[in-house]
Amino acid sequence: MITLNTPAPVAHAGLLGLGVFRPERIVTNDEICQKIDSNDEWIQERSGIIERRHADAHETVVTMATAAALAAIADAGISPEQLDMVMIATVTHRYQTPSAAVEVAAAIGAVNAAAIDSSAACAGFCYGLGIADGMIRSGVAKYILLIGAEKLSEIVNFEDRGTAFLFADGAGAVIVGPTQAQGIGPTIWGADGTQLDAIIMEPDVFTAERTGNPSVLTMQGQQVFRWAVEQMGDACMQALTAAGVSVADLAAFVPHQANNRITDALVKQLNLPDHVAIARDIQYSGNTSAASVPLALARLRENGEVKSGDLVLLVGFGAGLVHAAQVALVP
Ligand SMILES: CC(C)(COP(=O)(O)OP(=O)(O)OC[C@H]1O[C@@H](n2cnc3c(N)ncnc32)[C@H](O)[C@@H]1OP(=O)(O)O)[C@@H](O)C(=O)NCCC(=O)NCCS
């Protein structure tokens, strides 16, 4: 029988660098309310959102991902040629093919990298982290650039008051690579395709005319809210247990930035001690789907609320419905 070679595994993987891109244009609740019957007070109270950022016409998933990628590469102190893989979690790249990842790889000079987009909506970044961790420890890749990048302003119907105020644009990137000690806990993930109507992006001729993106998003807000509050606390607990740590070891909790009230419910369920910082980037960034977890983590690091080596709990959840949770050490 023929025996095939396998790559030499390495013991440990972790985050080596982090970088983000936030579009310049700030969109207030008052501006959103020009097209829906709502108001600033309701939006802040029911979601936590004070403002969000929308990309301009020249800012695309690719340009935002590229900017975040370059920042992450600089933060990690590696060169683009060292990357073996560029993976972009996105649901708003305009083309089915080629992927956004091939364009970003070319733009940053990742000439030795494979490139792929993945679709796990708001769980995309945490899914990607689980995949990257496995690829590095198995020896398949040494350095992976993982990016969450979204231009949700292109697929939102700004006359739908259930979604118009929630979704926004941005990109966050990390470099994942070999480390001295394990820096990414086991990923707890899952999918429930029986709830595929809860959040869905479907072809829409009007959005195509308005923005050039062929899809529009619809959401059953209460259904998603209930599911997140009922199930994500358990996923978080499993991620802690699987990694052999407890809430006392955490420096911060970085849930997907979907709704501050979902975050509040999870903080309560997890019984997080006071010293644990809670990511509330949704206040200034809205819900940026796959970009929300790295954007929120970066804001905590920028504000000095976490530092390199601190343990954080990440959880992503969204359309599918899908979810993924893990702990990680801050780069
Ligand atoms: C979207 C969301 C903020 C809506 O908040 P909610 O508290 O569930 O609101 P409801 O849909 O129950 O509506 C409550 C009331 O507010 C009204 N309302 C809905 N949207 C409104 C708006 N933008 N402005 C003012 N009132 C609004 C409703 O008509 C309803 O009025 P009624 O009680 O007179 O019937 C919330 O459901 C949510 O965040 N869901 C999860 C979304 C999410 O996580 N999505 C992404 C996952 S990736």
Please describe what this structure looks like.
The protein has helices at 29-32, 40-47, 61-76, 100-108, 124-137, 205-211, 221-243, 260-270, 282-285, 292-302; strands at 13-21, 26-28, 51-53, 85-89, 114-118, 144-151, 169-178, 188-191, 199-203, 215-219, 252-255, 277-278, 311-318, 322-329. By secondary structure, the protein is of the alpha/beta class. It has two domains: 13-178, Thiolase/Chalcone synthase (Peroxisomal Thiolase, Chain A, domain 1, 3-Layer(aba) Sandwich); 188-330, Peroxisomal Thiolase, Chain A, domain 1, CATH 3.40.47.10. Strands 1-7-6-4-5 form a five-stranded mixed beta sheet, with helices on both faces. Strands 8-14-13-11-12 form a five-stranded mixed beta sheet, sandwiched between helices. Strands 2-3 form a two-stranded antiparallel sheet. The N and C termini lie far apart (44 Å). The model has no long low-confidence stretch (mean pLDDT 97). It binds coenzyme A. Coenzyme A binds at residues 36, 38, 42, 46-47, 122, 161-162, 165, 199, 219, 221-222, 224-225, 228, 258-259, 287, 318. InterPro entries: ACP_syn_III_C (IPR013747), ACP_syn_III_N (IPR013751), FabH (IPR004655), Thiolase-like (IPR016039). Pathway: Lipid metabolism. Residues 117-193 form the Beta-ketoacyl-[acyl-carrier-protein] synthase III N-terminal domain.
Explain the layout of strands and helices:
Blueprint: E1 13-21, E2 26-28, H1 29-32, H2 40-47, E3 51-53, H3 61-76, E4 85-89, H4 100-108, E5 114-118, H5 124-137, E6 144-151, E7 169-178, E8 188-191, E9 199-203, H6 205-211, E10 215-219, H7 221-243, E11 252-255, H8 260-270, E12 277-278, H9 282-285, H10 292-302, E13 311-318, E14 322-329
Parallel strand pairs: 4-5, 4-6, 11-12, 11-13
Antiparallel strand pairs: 1-7, 2-3, 6-7, 8-14, 9-10, 13-14
Helix pairs in contact: 3-4, 7-8
The site of coenzyme A (COA) has 20 residues, from helix 2 and helix 7.
